[in-house]
């Protein structure tokens, strides 16, 4: 059994896979599923780190008992209270009534509010310790990665970091949980999408957490989602560092709406000129086809963003508007923004995107292009100018 659960020292993986849920948080597609990771430390004193979605409790309990049999669990450490991890707290408490819940000041109000669970607790502060025997745990408060109560637990004995959502990614674990025993290829793109969708607003708190943890001799990262990272630690930390700084590669996302294909022709003209200008990473997203989850992922990936919208009922096309609102929520920075739009009898979309541009504080590139009804020679020329302005701006960063 050990081989199937053991990570390092006396730490075991007891998480579960969810391949049923279509939309994480009711919004974000899960084509490869998602894992809810929990860890059991089978030391002189037994501790459980986070729980799993309540729907998986039977499987979860079987895994726990497979490691510790009938031994009691003394501590339940709660690094994060979002219900994908805290969902089984009440059930764990029912099966282990004497368990002491470990959290910080912010944690306990949430446990009572969500689950009505009270009882014995150990309230930790930044730097508090918990000695389990072999493993010596130290707690680091890392608020807003991704909720106010979030904290991380570091095992000083073996260098294992229980990081909560940080360093997590979408994707169930097919077979093994250790990065050394699985093909991790698909998780990297899903890590960017997870970050952009779930943690994207919290770049500053992630940076603060990375600074706080920077001196720790981490040998294993045990996140709440995705593989347990051992040989890829520098790469994983690098991904989170870059994304939380809003750093991005050279490339352009063209996100547009189009009802009858005319606005799409503007997008095509811009993309074609970008390519002529030597920009290789061009990603076109028809907002009616691409789920915003994937558009956001690409916006976090590339430095150029060009938004296009027809005028719809004297407003921006609704799907484009929804995307712009998601960009604002995530306080995306460091992107170059251009835009275009169309109308039939009265233009509004271009004006409204300009309002978004002002709020976003992104660097505006080129002149917005507004088209009446359908493409004309002048529209091709204006789209070409916008594309050239974007390409020139991106190329300046090459030096
Ligand atoms: Fe995976 Fe913020 O919970």
Secondary structure topology:
Layout: H1 2-5, E1 6-8, E2 11-13, E3 16-18, E4 23-24, E5 28-29, E6 34-36, E7 39-42, E8 46-49, H2 57-68, E9 75-77, H3 83-86, H4 89-95, E10 100-103, H5 105-115, E11 121-123, E12 129-131, E13 136-141, E14 151-155, E15 160-164, H6 185-199, H7 203-213, E16 220-223, H8 233-244, E17 249-256, H9 262-276, E18 282-286, H10 292-301, E19 302-312, E20 315-316, H11 318-329, E21 336-343, H12 349-360, E22 363-364, E23 369-372, H13 377-396
Parallel strand pairs: 8-9, 9-10, 10-11, 15-16, 17-18, 17-19, 19-21, 21-22, 21-23
Antiparallel strand pairs: 1-2, 2-7, 3-6, 4-5, 7-8, 12-13, 13-14, 14-15, 19-20
Helix pairs in contact: 6-10, 7-8, 9-13, 11-12
The protein binds MU-OXO-diiron.
Residues 80, 82, 84-85, 146, 165, 224-225 line the site of MU-OXO-diiron (FEO).
Task: Describe this entry's structure for a reader.
The chain is an alpha/beta fold and 399 residues long. The protein folds into 2 domains: 2-244, Metallo-beta-lactamase, Chain A, CATH 3.60.15.10; 249-393, Flavodoxin domain (Rossmann fold). Helix content is 36%, strand content 24%. It contains 13 helices and 23 strands. A hairpin with a 2-residue loop joins strand 19 (302-312) and strand 20 (315-316). The radius of gyration is 24 Å and the shape is elongated. The structure holds MU-OXO-diiron. The site of MU-OXO-diiron has 8 residues, from helix 3.
């Amino acid at each position: 059994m050990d081989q199937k659960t053991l990570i390092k020292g006396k730490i075991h993986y007891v998480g579960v896979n969810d391949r049923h849920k279509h939309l994480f948080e009711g919004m974000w597609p899960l084509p490869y599923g998602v894992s809810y990771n929990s860890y059991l430390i089978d030391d002189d004193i037994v501790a459980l780190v986070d729980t799993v979605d309540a729907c998986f409790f039977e499987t979860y309990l079987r895994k726990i008992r497979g490691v510790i049999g009938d031994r009691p669990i003394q501590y339940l450490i709660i690094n994060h209270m979002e219900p994908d991890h805290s969902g089984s707290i009440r059930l764990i408490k029912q099966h282990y009534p004497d368990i002491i819940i470990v959290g910080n000041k912010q944690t306990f109000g949430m446990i009572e509010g969500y689950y009505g669970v009270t009882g014995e607790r150990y309230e930790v502060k930044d730097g508090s310790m918990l000695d389990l025997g072999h493993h010596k745990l130290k707690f680091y408060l890392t608020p807003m990665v991704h909720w106010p109560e979030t904290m991380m637990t570091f095992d000083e004995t073996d260098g294992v970091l229980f990081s909560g959502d940080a360093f997590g990614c979408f994707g169930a674990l097919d077979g093994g949980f250790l990065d050394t025993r699985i093909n991790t290829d698909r998780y990297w793109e899903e890590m960017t999408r997870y970050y952009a969708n779930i943690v994207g607003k919290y770049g500053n708190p992630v940076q603060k957490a990375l600074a706080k943890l920077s001196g720790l001799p981490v040998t294993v990262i045990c996140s709440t989602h995705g593989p347990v990272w051992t040989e890829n630690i520098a790469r994983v930390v690098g991904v989170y560092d870059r994304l939380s700084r809003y750093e991005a590669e050279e490339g352009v996302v063209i996100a547009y709406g189009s009802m009858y294909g005319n606005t799409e022709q503007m997008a095509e003209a811009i993309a074609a000129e970008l390519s002529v200008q030597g920009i290789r990473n061009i990603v076109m997203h028809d907002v009616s086809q691409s789920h915003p989850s994937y558009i956001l992922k690409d916006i976090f990936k590339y430095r150029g963003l060009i938004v296009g919208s027809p005028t719809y009922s004297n407003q921006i096309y609704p799907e484009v508007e929804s995307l712009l609102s998601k960009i604002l929520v995530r306080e995306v920075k460091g992107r170059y923004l251009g835009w275009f739009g169309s109308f039939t009898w009265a233009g509004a979309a271009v004006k409204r995107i300009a309002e978004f541009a002002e709020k976003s504080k992104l660097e505006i590139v080129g002149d917005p292009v507004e088209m009446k009804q359908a493409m004309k020679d002048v529209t091709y020329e204006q789209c070409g100018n916008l594309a050239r302005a974007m390409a020139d701006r991106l190329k300046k960063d090459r030096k």
